[in-house]
Amino acid sequence: MAVTTYHAEHGTLLERFFERNRGPLLVSPALAVLFIMNIFPLLWSFGLSFYRYRANRIKEPEFVWFKNYQKVLTDPVVWERFQTTAIVVTVDVLLQLVVGFLLALLFEKTFPGRRVLLMLVLTPMMLSFVAVGAFFRYYYEPTFGLLSQGIKAITGEPFILLGSEVGALAGIIFADVWMWSPFVMLLVLAGLVSVPKHLYEAAEIDRASWWRRFWTITFPYIRGLLLLAILFRTIEAFKLFDIVFLITEGGPGTSTETIAVYVYRVAFQYFKTSQSAALGYILLFVVIVLTNLYLFFVRRRDVEEQ
Amino acid sequence: MARRRREIGKAGWGRTAFSTVISFIYFFPVLWIILTAFKSHTDALSTPPKFIFTPTLDNFVSVFARAYERGGAAVDTHFDLFFFNSIFIAGASVGVALIIGTIAAYGFSRWPLRGNETYLFIILTTRMLPPIIVIIPIFIMFRLSGLSGSYIGIILLYAAFNLPFTIWMMKSFFDEIPREVEDAARMDGSSEMKIFFRICLPQVKAGIAATAVFGLILTWNEFLFALLLTGRDTRTVPVAMAQTIGGDIGVRWGLLAAIETLFLIPVVFVTFLLQNQLLRGVTFGTIRR
What is the ipTM, given to two decimal places? Predict the structure, then answer.
């Protein structure tokens, strides 16, 4: 640090300015882009959520305080959508963790062709949502769909997955789990390969059981990454939109309409612009609370361990 | 004993075979898309599904030029332009996010501001938002400023989407690398520029690669904003792909599959090249030793 001040004292005025404000100068380009493209529109729509405004009318916005929030929170439909979302998020993230974890175990050790096989398993998350949505609808299609045909060949009965509420939910979750488990796998695998080999050797000498070896050696190395995976996947699952919209469009009826799809309908089909903004902020609030609970949980665990 | 030690990191043949089978089952839906790309329309809709068929390249041809009406003449679909747009927009936005994000992460890590944690949390918050909320203000903003349908607008927007992840990831990398070398270089009178480019950047290469791959995958497939904010000349492949669904003979699965197959090649290629960096990159920042 002493050297830095030496420079500062001898530089020109401009150089001295750069020296003194290095931190702010380094972060300002990023903050500027974020402000223009994210934070400013965010504040705008936050303001909008206190007005009565419809994007398809010329009428001037009218300030209505918390009326939009009141309307949204007292609407039983919204609570139904939140319930659907809660089910989808819970089952979806849990399954992704399990499948991702099991996939990671497959690639824990080296074997010939591992690099290529790993690539094969990673491809689902590189597909575009449009393709995954469209093609899973094609696989579920009762007459010529691959999955329906396969099951029909086994049971002998026509298989219509998307016809029932549970089936439609299962169809959506199946597609999303298939697409995003590789992400969880990648994080868990990164943890698995970072475990120092000599720890396993020591465990072998001690003749520790597989279970014990897992909890005492492996788990501490993947815990952090597993929690990170839960955080990212939960945030993304709350925003689940494209796949639902392409596979079921929220149907049958409204049984698979998640909150993100509902916000889309309120905003672009009913054109209740300000109400959709209010709904969006309630959703954001829920996600922030969950994230903070999560961060609190992680930090407390860290403190306990020290 | 020496044999034993080698075995710890290596899989036996049984496990190898099992992993291979499971990998192929997992890959099967993608494989089916690729197979469908080589099928004629009747083959794609046949019952039972056909595993053996005469492959055709018709679908790939009709990605770039096809008749929009039955019996009409083949017309250029401009998909070459859409592919260029996707590559250019994704490349540029990930590049911009990496450059300004890495610099910002370096700042957050080495010269913390007052309220550093708050800034970082706000940055993460922008990532949690359902995109639908901000889309109306952004749409109006783009219209008013003339950014709608321009490259620069969508590139900056995607860069903003990638920034939170880039900053969080790169900050954890910079936090992990030891500062002794930097301080020693400072004592020797190295300029700050030199310290950043010669000492810090080379140590976080794996992180840059991992961040780039994640950013690329997300940007490459983004649909909603591309649909609303790109014009005819800046349209990306996912939007154009969605627009081929529908038409007078139902969904042309072969065509859709051909587009997706072509669209998958660049991102798989990049990921394959950076695969080793990817694993190392993910671990580096998050595991405290």
Answer: 0.83
